[in-house]
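TA notes, week 10

Several of you asked for a full example with nothing omitted. So below is the full record: structure tokens for the whole chain, then the designed sequence directly under it. When grading your own attempts, check the secondary structure regions first.
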């Protein structure tokens, strides 16, 4: 069969690589992809928002499966277009994608169905939000209600910082329409982890755990980003907590969506906190996580395409996982997540990476002169390495990155460090 992956980042690169390894797959396409993916996918001249052109092309080429990576086309209804055309798609409908696209929708759903999460209030009025937050103990969590590329969350440590965050979101439209409504949550203390599941209606198939590092700099300081690195497995999260999260969060959420007549198909991503009261939801996403996907998929030892087809048919697949660990580190342009320049030529990382047992997943790159890849700013690529332990994987990936230091880029040096030291 022919498979289309919609998106252009490191997550989509990892998906293309895994899908291309399936014996069921004749050819993999990426729309629009990026030139770093050319080794595993054929790039298409269509962007994620060109819904009609994508569907028409897919019909013409008889695409057997579509996997949509990013959140924006999900919120804009691309999966609905494919379903209306009768083309198999592994992604939620526009209505179901609200679980990521509207934090207030997700919180209200959890409240109705008693799914454990932080206490919260929703505001559109700055003065009302300011009055409310000034009565709370600090820290709190302030979230833009809509999509903000993983950057719409602030954890103020003082009342002044909280009021500043509300002013930036509600009055200064820091994240545009996404911050016209804000959610103010109680701060939860504990260990964070990411638990993704393949979902179709009430069928829930959990994947292995990962832990993301959202803050820009070592020690979890600096602004929130789209993710600076991740690792899998997460040994500090006990098996009972994972089972409880599946039984009390993922499965009830899938059932709730069915009961609300908004059945979910695709990847349900739960960002969770292991609190003293057990796992609680920080956020839901409606797609594969980035960069979690880049460290989880290399550990999957069965055919991802067959697994997805089984789930779409309502069958529960048996997943097989490698005992090896994987650590992935994002290399970003200096200035990220703020203003940062592109145009920096990259060395031939992919070829060397294979020799060093390192996987390279490109994101913010474009084609430069003489077939050289050039950075576009933001997150440029993720280098990830499998190892016999998290310590082994960390040592391998950081040794590789040390050989390819470029002053225009930076990375965190502590990805997975806490897990290794526990």
């Amino acid at each position: 069969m022919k498979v289309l992956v919609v998106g252009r980042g490191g997550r989509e690169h990892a998906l293309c690589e895994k899908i291309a390894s399936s014996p069921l797959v004749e050819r993999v396409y990426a729309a629009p992809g990026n030139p770093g993916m050319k080794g595993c996918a054929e790039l298409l001249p269509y962007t994620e928002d060109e819904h009609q052109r994508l569907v028409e092309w897919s019909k013409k080429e008889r695409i057997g499966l579509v996997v949509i990576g990013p959140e924006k086309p999900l919120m804009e209804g691309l999966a609905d277009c494919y379903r209306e055309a009768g083309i198999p798609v592994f992604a939620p409908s526009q209505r179901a994608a609200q679980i990521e696209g509207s934090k207030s929708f997700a919180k209200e759903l959890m409240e109705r169905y008693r799914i454990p999460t932080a206490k919260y209030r929703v505001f559109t009025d700055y003065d009302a939000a300011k009055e409310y937050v000034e009565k709370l103990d600090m820290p709190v969590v302030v979230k833009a209600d809509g999509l903000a590329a993983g950057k719409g969350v602030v954890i103020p440590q003082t009342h002044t910082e909280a009021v500043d965050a509300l002013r930036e979101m509600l009055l200064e439209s820091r994240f545009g329409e996404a911050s016209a409504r804000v959610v103010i949550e109680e701060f939860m203390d504990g260990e964070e982890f990411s638990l993704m599941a393949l979902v179709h209606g009430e069928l829930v198939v959990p994947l292995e755990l990962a832990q993301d590092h959202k803050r820009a700099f070592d020690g979890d300081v600096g602004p929130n980003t789209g993710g600076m690195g991740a690792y899998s497995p997460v040994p500090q999260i006990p098996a009972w907590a994972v089972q409880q999260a599946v039984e009390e969060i993922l499965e009830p959420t899938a059932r709730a969506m069915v009961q609300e007549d908004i059945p979910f198909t695709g990847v349900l991503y739960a960002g969770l906190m292991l609190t003293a009261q057990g796992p609680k939801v920080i956020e839901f996403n409606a797609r594969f996580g980035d960069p979690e996907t880049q460290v989880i998929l290399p550990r999957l030892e069965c055919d991802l395409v067959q697994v997805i087809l089984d789930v779409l048919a309502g069958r529960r697949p048996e997943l097989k996982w490698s005992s090896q660990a994987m650590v992935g580190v994002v290399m970003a342009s200096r200035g990220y997540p703020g203003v940062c320049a592109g145009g920096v030529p990259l060395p031939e990382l992919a070829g060397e990476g294979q020799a060093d047992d390192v996987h390279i997943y490109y994101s913010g790159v474009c084609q430069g002169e003489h077939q050289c890849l050039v950075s576009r700013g933001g997150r440029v690529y993720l280098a990830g390495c499998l190892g016999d332990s998290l310590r082994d994987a960390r040592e391998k990936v950081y040794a590789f990155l040390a050989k390819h230091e470029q002053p225009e880029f930076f990375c965190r040096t502590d990805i997975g460090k806490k897990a290794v030291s526990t």
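The longest strand covers residues 265-275. Use that as a sanity check on your answer.
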